[in-house]
Amino acid sequence: MACDFMVPKGMTPATRKTQVEQAIERLNAALAAGTVKVKVGATGAVAFTGAWQRDGVSDSCAYRKLMAASSPALRLAVARAEVTAGRKINAQAVAAGVHSHDGGSTWHKGH
Q: Looking at residue 43, what DSSP letter applies?
């Protein structure tokens, strides 16, 4: 997955994979606890607001991994965010890499 492809210098791919999995687990726990929330952008892109130790994992990658795992915490947070924003998450915007570096205040095209 896209989260795994950038392996920092001095780190093995297996170590990076473990690091990404741990970051996703922390995010899932933070979503369940309510310390991190989902924000839906104008194009339907997704961002997470709140503090979680990312370890270089992007919001869109974390979203895709948690959706693939059918995370109940993510599904609940997404439902709340979609009601609040008045729009659904757009899978095409997520796949295109539309993202935010500041918790959803500003949005950028994929890069």
A: T
